[in-house]
Structures are given as C-alpha cells and as structure tokens.
Write a structure and sequence with these properties.
It is a single chain. Helices cover 55% and strands 12% of the residues. The chain is α/β, with parallel strands linked by helices. Strands 2-3-1-4-5 form a 5-stranded parallel sheet, sandwiched between helices. Helix 6 links the parallel strand 4 and strand 5. The radius of gyration is 16 Å and the shape is globular.
Length: 186
C-alpha cells in the first residue's frame, strides 16, 4: 500500500485534497486528529497536548492502514492500486511544537525517523484563508513562513514530494499526475 501524506500550513486545502484523492483512487484517507482533539478539549492546548495529538494521529493512521490492508486483500486489489492518503504526519507536529513552544518531543522526532511514507504533497498557501474557530495563523507572512518550514523539511529527506498549488481542481490534477507518474515509473 502506498502511503501518501498531505502536509502544509492550516487552511491550505489538505483535508479537501485528501478527500478528493481518496475518492479518485477508490480508497480511504486519515483525517487530521488535531481537529477532533481541539474540538473536544478546546484551543488552549499545552506542549504536552501536542504529544497527545501526535499519538492520536499515529494511532488513527495505523488503524486505518490495518483496515485498508484487510480491505485490499479481501477484494484482491492490485498492489499498484493500493493507496492511503494521510492528512498530516509527524512533520506537522514537529513544526507545530517548534513554532509554538520552541521545542519538540523526542517521540515525535523518533517517529519521523521510523515511520515511512511513499510521497508527500505539500500544499501551498495560495488558497484564500478560510477562518474557523480552530485556526490560528491568518497572516499571509506567517503562513508563508510556515510553508517554508515544511518545504525545508521535505528538501532534506529522501521521500519524493511535490508542492501543490492553484485552485482545488488544479491541486487535485497536479497531485494525480504526480502520484500516477511516481507509481508507474517504478
């Protein structure tokens, strides 16, 4: 199963892109756990809460991956058609910890080294900001700064990645083209 992670600053269309890609490839996606956590416990989070969120994200991903493996096996779906799209990973948790608290939990850092993915889609900040009660950074300069933190992480690792920009349809088509090229070139 190919695990493809969608990352980027908030309000860049990550969840929408995951939903659209999962629909296109007839598979499932893992929502961002932080949203459910913050909706339940509020936005006055602590440094330790970020570790709880990270653990919840990894548990959600692992559970969905197990469910999808069984689903693919039962239906005898070909290997090249097995995908799982993941909205957020430990890179996002690292950036969040360091940006807000100037430090990062060792478990998050170790998980970055241990967990393996097949590709990253980095969502650009060129979509209009959409406010909601959970989002913190509407300032374009701050969003750009966060985008470059993510880009720096991706540049310095070996997993294939691409920046996804444009409107929602352009993002979807760019992601599909990248994924199809990556899969069929191997």
């Amino acid at each position: 199963m190919k695990k493809i992670v969608v990352i980027g600053p908030e309000s860049t269309g990550k969840s929408t892109l995951c939903k659209l890609l999962a629909s296109h490839y007839h598979t499932a996606w893992v929502p961002e756990y932080a949203r459910a956590f913050l909706e339940k416990y509020g936005t006055a989070y602590s440094y330790d809460d970020l570790l709880k969120i990270a653990n919840g994200q990894m548990a959600s991903e692992d559970k969905m991956a197990d469910e999808q493996r069984k689903y693919f096996e039962e239906r005898k779906i070909k290997d090249e058609e097995r995908f799982l799209f993941i909205d957020t990973d430990m890179y996002v948790m690292k950036v969040w910890c360091e940006y807000v608290f100037d430090q990062c939990h060792n478990k998050i850092l170790n998980s970055i080294a241990e967990r393996k993915y097949d590709a990253y889609l980095l969502c650009d900040v060129d979509l209009p900001w959409v406010a909601d009660e959970l989002r913190e950074y509407p300032d374009p300069k701050e969003r750009g700064k966060l985008f470059h933190f993510y880009k720096d992480l991706l540049v310095n690792q070996s997993t294939p990645w691409i920046t996804i920009s444009g409107d929602y349809e352009a993002r979807l088509q760019n992601a599909i083209h990248f994924i199809d090229d990556m899969i069929w070139k191997k």
